[in-house]
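quick one before i forget lol
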Amino acid sequence: MIGNDWDKKLEIINKSEGFKKFLQVIDKEYETDVIYPPRENIFNALKLTPYEKVKVVIVGQDPYHGEGEAHGLSFSVQKGIKIPPSLINIFKELKSDLNIDAPLCGDLTKWSEEGVLLLNAVLTVKKDRAASHRKLGWEKLTDYIIKLLNERCEPIVFILWGNFAKEKSVYITKGHHLIISSPHPSPFSANYGFFGSKPFSKTNEFLKRNNIKEIDWKL
């Protein structure tokens, strides 16, 4: 149970035999290996950003796989954890785009509360093994979530960083919603189009044009 309107929206999925079997697989993973994020944080993104409150979606790949990092929000790390390189680059672009200084902490919970759904395409990962739960079944759920959001009458901004995230664009109606895509903020790709892409100002300009309250990106 998420505890908000996502429960109703995802009712068909939650009641399906296929999803119940998939969750049994995930339960087994937690029993036999070290899995991130902690089980109670798997659906943090949905808990913090109800369906009707979503203004922006930032799609990530899968959770950070280092100890104590992941807490259910794409690109975010818990307080007290060293800020990962991709998030450092996100903060650099935020400074360049909106002149907002990088925070001391990498916890993006405030963005979630502003209406930014920080959704990873895959919601769990094995310790120290990036993409280890890719193709396990999470993609069916997150594809469905994107489809549900695409049905919204109120326009949404979808921020897709990297090829993994761009795969979700097939479920988004361009024109009604705004898609902002660029290379991933990873140090391996950020210099090839992520830096200078101005996703934060473009998002707020779109929201303002559609009479939607802009995001306060300052953390």
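fyi The beta strands are 35-36, 56-60, 116-120, 125-126, 157-161, 178-182.
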